[in-house]
Fold these 2 entries.
Entry 1:
Amino acid sequence: MTENFDAHPRSSLIVALDFDSLNTALKFAKSLADLVGMFKIGSQLFTAAGPAAVKEISALGPGIFLDLKFHDIPNTVAGAVLSCAAMSGVQLVNVHALGGTAMLQAAAQAISAGIPMGADRPRLLAVTVLTSMDQKAIREVGIGGPPKTRVVKLAKLAKSAGVDGVVASVQEARAIRKACGRDFLIVTPGVRPKDKASPSNGDDQARTATPTEAIKAGADFLVVGRPILAAADPRAAAQAIVEEIASAK
Ligand code: C5P
């Protein structure tokens, strides 16, 4: 590994560029580029703007978490992961752990394929259970038990298939760290600064926590979208989160 993700507290902050146009996303990303470790391009922006979004946003400096959450048959997912890994600037790529062992293994092989020996490669993450889902929601889709039990099982499955880490809520981070070890990456969305920690009207995240709680629970990266995107002063909001990360480390 040539990359040191931990160099500065800002490197733990991933800002989700959940915008519907590349122009808007670029303008916003430019205003924050010196304050964040990575930008996350998810299905909304990637569907609207395609690989140009990765190219133009990665040119600003921070790495890219390409959050497309693939969930398909192994051959199709392997091809999709290969395409992601070939895009310059992509540091994190993800699939759904619920795709199962064969799909996870195919993705893990694809993430290294085509990368020259000795060169750094993107890391592969598995989404465990969406942080928008609570116990009732996961029961409705036929998954029993509390989210934490399911998330830890999925994290172990992903690790044994060769995946580098998981996307999970802060509430499960400690148990994942214990089960999967220090080197397994934990990326936590659903992060809400203290004044916004209780789900407000219109917020779909069910399993939320503050930046301090996320770091203390062992998260390597915090994904933050709306608390920065919708802030009156997004730079100040990002800066406050980086300061909170720094004092929690
Ligand atoms: O606006 P907010 O801070 O809730 O944004 C969280 C981001 O993280 C969104 O882009 C969402 O798609 C993403 N995400 C998530 N839960 C996961 C994986 C990714 O909320 N399990």
Entry 2:
Amino acid sequence: MCGIVGYIGNKNCIPILINGLKRLEYRGYDSAGIAYLADGSSFVIKNKGKVSLLEEKLSHLNINSNLGIGHTRWATHGIPNEINAHPHFNEDKTLYVIHNGIIENYQTIRASLRKLGYNFITETDSETIPYLIDSFLKKGFPLCKSVQLALNEIEGTYGLAVIYLNEPDKIIAARKGSPLILGIGENENFVASDVSAILAHTKQVVYLEDGEMAVVYKDHFVVKTIEDVEIKKEITEITMSLEEIDKGGYPHFMLKEIMEQPDSVQNSMRGRLIYEEGTAKLGGLEGYIDRIVNSKRIIISACGTSWHAGLVGEYMLEQFTRIPTEVEYASEFRYRNPIISKDDTIIFISQSGETADTLAAMREAKRKGALALGICNVVGSSIARESMTGIYTHAGPEIGVASTKAFSSQLIVLALITLLIARKKDMSLVDGQGIVEEMTKLPDKIRQILKLNSEIEAIAEKFKSATNFLYLGRGYNFPVALEGALKLKEISYIHAEGYPAAEMKHGPIALIDDNMPTVFIAPKDSTYDKIISNIEETKARKGVIIGIASENDDNIDRLVDYSIKIPDTIRMLMPILTVIPLQLLAYHIAVKKGLNVDQPRNLAKSVTVE
Ligand code: G6P
């Protein structure tokens, strides 16, 4: 979603802003722009489309500026075009604002500003901010105070950066509900919505919290609340490296991240399995383990792919811990006044740790007294910081918009939690050791599946012109069917639906004909015979079938048109293996259609608006 980068220092800000914006491209955007101060004047340049277009425009101007802000916009109010792109500015073009989030009362603010003579030129909610700040500047307030006064009138969410020609020594940054960090350098400082934008320049960062603003000078910064109370902030050192967020020779981040899964899965388990005790050790849960084990109920709340991981988690937790477990879309959970008690543990799963609905759901759960446990990938993200206890997935940076390695790592963490609780309850040592052993074998089994890449690519070639797909699975593999369908939709724009295989008879079977491919996830587990019946039913209707099957299953070949044979593991861990061919299938179909897999249309990596 929208991205922010800002620079103040002695260097030319233009390449820094452009490279920062390029690093933010993965978040999803539709237009880009920058504003900068140079030679006592201010300038703004923006366009619809790619950052490279902006770069091209700027390359013709010989700019040398030490202060600027840049933005990638993901449209919420108003179509993606040059006018609606950020930065937005006041009438005399002295004040520039970039904004992530949504101003909910922008219509009311617009109406009162119109009465003061302000004319709006964009369709955006964001344009109200420079005008509102300007109205206070006109009353004689300095910039910082004017920003505070404006923010007091704003309802909604924001991560924003402001520069002003008449106070050219600072950037003002403020946060409420939309992530924002400061990057601290030597005689230079940065503002960004995401560390990847500034990682090339500094690893020292300050995380702003909701309700905080920063006045950033080139050699120091001051953080205060919107109410003007100064706050002392800690500087945190980022451990992520620049190499980790590069493509490493792969054509797309998505493929790189799929291929990284033997390592990312390994990293999620590293130091967390104790074979002798047949259990898991999760330092992040220390002090809360008894409360978790004694929970009367577990709720898992998340969005998108993380929600699918939650569904698998439900199967794991109920099977082994016998604690009733429910899974909720965070967006529904937060608005429907859920019944929550102090005996509930609520697990919030989020790769980015910034998804607006998940964050808000977590705050609501905390307010109601439940134990809020975060499972996040991005270290230092809002959910990671605000959850009461939590576990990092340690999958490494995930840049591809379609989530892959984060999903398998989320499943690992859910398996670890399950193991830990189950062993504290009534799982036997031997059973616990069995799970530990199977988990240890996963990286090699994933390696084995990844060797099928060319085979899967060849299958993708056959289906690149399909317009509809059905994905079916049972038990633990039902959520994988949903995830497989989601992957295909996200990057290939082919309509796909996931269903529990038995439900096929209640609707989707009507769609099946010789043009409709169905992917069956059919490893040899306790539901195998049932799913074979569903395959037969599909075959009888001339459906085209791709089967994800166990490596020793020769029987399935007579039923399916294409089979992808993978190693087996215990049922609870099977989704970590079955999802991988589906990720590859979606990837190759999209590439064969000539689509930009890393930046699918309309999607965002980090959904920071509701
Ligand atoms: C977006 C991303 C998905 C992701 C979902 C939840 O839609 O494109 O890949 O699964 O948000 O994100 P989170 O960061 O909370 O896991």
